[in-house]
Design brief:
Shape: globular
Largest sheet: 5 strands, mixed
Strand order of the largest sheet: 3-2-1-4-7
Distance between the termini: 17 Å
Number of domains: 2
Mean pLDDT: 93
Structural class: alpha/beta
Number of strands: 7
Order of helices and strands: EEEHEHHEEHHEHHHH
Low-confidence stretches: none
Oligomer: single chain
Strand content: 5-15%
Radius of gyration: 18 Å
């Protein structure tokens, strides 16, 4: 397991605008201290984040991206069962999404979910639920899940299918836009577990901000933090000092700050890098770091 020196958490957004208000970034240093927000002035765009990942990371940074790095595969044996062009693995999926969405502004993903054939796999707005949104014989009606999302649920989290594009908690748009960014990294930074964990250097992992909140003693259903006082208490549970401030804080910034401090602790837990069943889905579905 590499010994990281910096821990960067990025709260993501799939909103179809240049600078989504939901993107927030926080950095924690391996030698301790309070995590700090990384300010982007007018706000972060997805292209800004891509540029930072390519050329602005501190050495040996563990980057946690709050999005799904892939789509369900194991439940049906394919991302898009029955479609002759369904990609064989996560990297091919990223390439497909970026190709289909090449003309979408701001690294968006509208063209992918509106694709004549692929739209059948998504739940979209205005009651448009595709015929393939649910897996055959699925035990629930929440859409297809990856193996790691089933493990998230075992922690008490409330995961959503990456094929779901509806509702305040939907993660589909964030995940698809994030996969465009991962493709454009062109292999410059390993993305665990699609790529093996290297002995040194920076690495990107998928995170789900409810997991750091649970680790800090909060309930999954009340994981969002909206005050500096709540944030300080949660950070103290992780052995971290808190940044200066009092009163309200937006939940995106709080998620990023708490997740950066959690990564600093969790990165040293060998079990989190080797969850049972990982090898069966590593190159197709990927995994959420911290899911058991």
């Amino acid at each position: 397991m590499p010994r990281f020196r910096h821990f960067l958490a990025i709260d993501w957004s799939g909103a179809a605008v240049e600078r989504p208000g939901g993107i927030a970034m926080a950095l924690a240093h391996g030698d301790g201290g309070a995590p700090v927000l990384v300010d982007a002035g007018p706000g972060w765009s997805r292209r800004d984040v891509l540029a930072l990942l390519l050329d602005g990371l501190p050495d040996d940074t563990l980057v946690g991206l709050d999005l799904g790095i892939s789509l369900p595969f194991a439940d049906c044996g394919a991302f898009f069962p029955g479609w002759r062009e369904t990609p064989p693995d996560a990297r091919a999926l990223w390439s497909l999404i970026d190709h289909i969405c090449a003309d979408d502004a701001h690294l968006g993903a509208t063209s992918f979910v509106d694709h004549d054939e692929l739209s059948a796999f998504f739940r979209r707005h205005n009651g448009r639920e595709g015929a393939c949104f649910h897996a055959p014989d699925a035990p629930h009606r929440r859409g297809r899940f990856r193996v790691t999302e089933e493990r998230q649920a075992a922690l008490g989290c409330l995961p959503y299918s990456n094929f779901n594009l509806v509702g305040a908690a939907q993660v589909g748009k964030s995940s698809l836009t994030g996969m465009r960014v991962l493709h454009r990294l062109n292999g410059r930074i390993p993305v665990w577990p699609v790529d093996p964990l290297p002995p040194s250097g920076s690495v990107i992992v998928e995170i789900y901000t409810a997991i750091p909140a649970i680790a800090a003693g909060r309930r999954a259903g009340a994981s969002k933090i909206r005050s500096h006082e709540e944030l300080a208490a949660a950070l103290a549970s992780l052995g971290s000092p808190a940044p200066h401030g009092s009163g309200p804080i937006d939940d995106h910034s709080a998620d990023a700050l708490l997740s950066a401090a959690w990564l600093r602790v969790a990165a040293h837990d060998d079990a989190l890098w080797n969850p049972p069943g990982l090898n069966d889905v590593a190159q197709t579905e990927g995994w959420t770091f911290g899911a058991p």
